[in-house]
Amino acid sequence: MKGEHLFRSKYKSALTNCALLNNLDEETNNEILSLFHHEKWPKNTCFLNHEKFFFHFYIILSGRVKMYQVEPNSGKELTLFLLTKSDVFDLFCLLDGDKHQVYYECLDNVKVLAAPMTELRSWLNRHPEHYKNLLPYAGKQLRSLENYVSDITFTDISTRLLKLLIRNVNDKSNTLELINDLSNKELAYLIGSTRAVVNRHLQRLKQNGSIKISRKRLQVKNLSLLLHLLENQKLANLKI
Amino acid sequence: MKGEHLFRSKYKSALTNCALLNNLDEETNNEILSLFHHEKWPKNTCFLNHEKFFFHFYIILSGRVKMYQVEPNSGKELTLFLLTKSDVFDLFCLLDGDKHQVYYECLDNVKVLAAPMTELRSWLNRHPEHYKNLLPYAGKQLRSLENYVSDITFTDISTRLLKLLIRNVNDKSNTLELINDLSNKELAYLIGSTRAVVNRHLQRLKQNGSIKISRKRLQVKNLSLLLHLLENQKLANLKI
DNA sequence: TTAGTTGTGCTACTTAAGTAGTACTATTCA
DNA sequence: TGAATAGTACTACTTAAGTAGCACAACTAA
Predict the structure, then answer these.
(1) Which domain holds residue B170?
(2) What are the protein's UniProt keywords (chains A, B) (predicted)?
C-alpha cells in the first residue's frame, strides 16, 4: 500500500485519530502504513472464525463493527464493544498473542486497513518506543469493560438503557448517534439484556415523550428529561 | 533501595514472576528496582483515596489486596480484582494517566514495593522497549474483565459460585486456595451478588457434600461433584 | 469477663427481569 | 407481486435474585 497516498486521502482523519499511529513523524507513519492493505466488508458480514484476528490486525476507516459473544448453550448474545472509525482490533490478540473468543459483525459497509499480525509485531519490536501508543488505548478498553461490570451489577435495565441513550447523544447536534438505527435486540445486547425487556422500557420513555421510536429508528426528543429520570433512579437507590 | 540485595532476598520469586520485570538483565533489573522502596500495610488497611495510586505504582511481594468499587447511593460493593504476589497496580493509571475510581483493601498483612509514578514513567520513556512487558499483563486484565461481563450476563449466581470455587482449587494439592478464608459477603462481592444469596447456594452445596463450611472457612470436599454440577447447569441452559 | 462486633443460617416476602406467545407491520428479495 | 423475514408492541406467566429481619455462634477488645 502506498502509505503517502493513503495518508492524504479521505481517510486521513481516521488515521490521525488512531491510537497506533499517534504522534508519528511522516516517515515512520508511511513505514507502518506500508504493512497494511485496504479491505472492504459489506454490511452484515459476520466473522465467526477467531483465527482471522489472530493472524491480522485491523484499523477501521469507516463503518461500525461490533465485537460480541454468544453463549453456546442458550444462544444468548452480548455486545462487548461497538467499534467505529479509528478503532483497532483485536487488541486482546495483539497484547498477549492468545486467541480471543469473540465474534465480529459489520453493522455498516466497512472499510478497514489490515496488516499481518507477525509483521506488525516485528515492526513494533524494531521500534519499541511505539508500544507506548498502545497503552492509553488499552487503558480505554479496560475502563470500558470495568464500567460494563459495575453497571451490570449495580444498576437495573432501565437505568442502563437511560445511560446508553444519554452517552450516545452528540453534545453539539443534540441528536442520538451511533445507536439510533439499531433494533431493540441490538440495543438489548449492548446492555446485557433481552429484546422484550428493552422494548418494555422504551415504551415507557416513549409515553413520557423523551424519545420517539419507529422501526429501527430511535430519536431522543428530550435529553434533559432523560437526565432527570436518571437522577431520580439514583435517588431511588438511596438507603434510608 | 538496594536492588541487588532485595533481588536475592526472600521475595525473589515475587519479582521474577512480575510482568514489569520480565526478561530483564541483572543491570536493568537493579536499575528499575532502585526506583522502588519497601512498604508494609497491615491487614484490613483500606485505601479510599484514588490519588494515592495516581502518584505511586505498586508491586505486591506478599499478601492479598482487593480492588473494589462501591455504588455511592446503595452502598453495594463489587470486587473487581483479587490481587496477589507479583501483581502490580494500578495498571489503569499507569496506562493512560487518568485517575481510577476504585478502592483498595488489604486482606492480609501485605508487603509491597512502591515507586513514584513519574519516575517509573520517565524510566520507561528512557527504556521504551520495556513497555512491551506491560502488554501481556494488560491483556490478562482485559480478559479477566471481559470474562466477568459475560459471566454476569450469561450465567446465574449458582453457576458463578461453582466457577469461582472450581477455578480456585489448586490442581496439585486439590484444595481451595486464595478464597478459602473469606466470609460469605466477600465471596458474594467476587461474583456480583449478595451475602444472603451466596449463603443460600453454599448451603445447597454443603447438603450434597461437595463443600464443607464453617466461620470464614471453606473447603472443597468433592471437586468432581462440583465439576459435574457445573456441567448440569450448562445443559439446563440448552434451548430445546 | 463481658459487651460489642462480625459472621452464619434461616424464613418470609417483593420485585425486576426473563420467557412464551401472538398479532400486526415494515421490509426484502425471488 | 407476493411470500418470507425481521422488527415491534403487547399480555400473561415464571422465577431467581434481592431484601428484611431475626436468632444464634464465634470471635475481639476493653
Answers:
(1) 155-236
(2) DNA-binding, Transcription, Transcription regulation
Query: Is A191 found in the same domain as A93?
Result: no
B97 interface with A at CB cutoff 8 Å: yes
Structural domain includes residue A150: no
Domain count, chain B: 2
What is the rounded CA–CA span in Å between residue B210 and residue B204? 9
Residue type, B200: R
Check pLDDT > 50 for residue A240: no
Q: Mark whether B11 and B114 lie in a shared domain.
A: yes
B55 and B165 belong to one structural domain: no
Do A13 and A127 lie in a common domain?
yes
The answer to whether B82 touches B64, Cβ cutoff 8 Å, is yes
Q: Are residues B13 and B96 in the same domain?
A: yes
Quote the distance between the C-alpha of residue A217 and its chain's center.
Answer: 19
Report strand pairing: A77-83 vs A65-70.
antiparallel
Residue A145 lies in a domain: no
Cα–Cα dist B208/B236, whole Å:
19
For chain A, the residue count is 240
Distance between CA A38 and CA B212 in Å, rounded?
A: 59
ipTM of the complex, rounded to two decimals: 0.95
Q: What is the CATH number of the domain that holds B11?
A: 2.60.120.10
Same domain, residue pair A218 and A102: no
pLDDT in tens, B86-99: 999 999 999 999 99
Q: How do residues A134-145 score in pLDDT, each as one tens digit? A: 999 999 999 999
CB contact under 8 A, A71 and B154: yes
Backbone φ and ψ for A158, nearest 5 degrees, come out as: -65, -35
Q: Is residue A134 part of a domain?
A: yes
Instruction: Point out the residue among A73, A145, A235 whose CB comes nearest to the CB of B146.
Output: A145
C-alpha–C-alpha distance, residues A189 and A198, integer Å: 10
C26 C1' closest Cα residue: A215
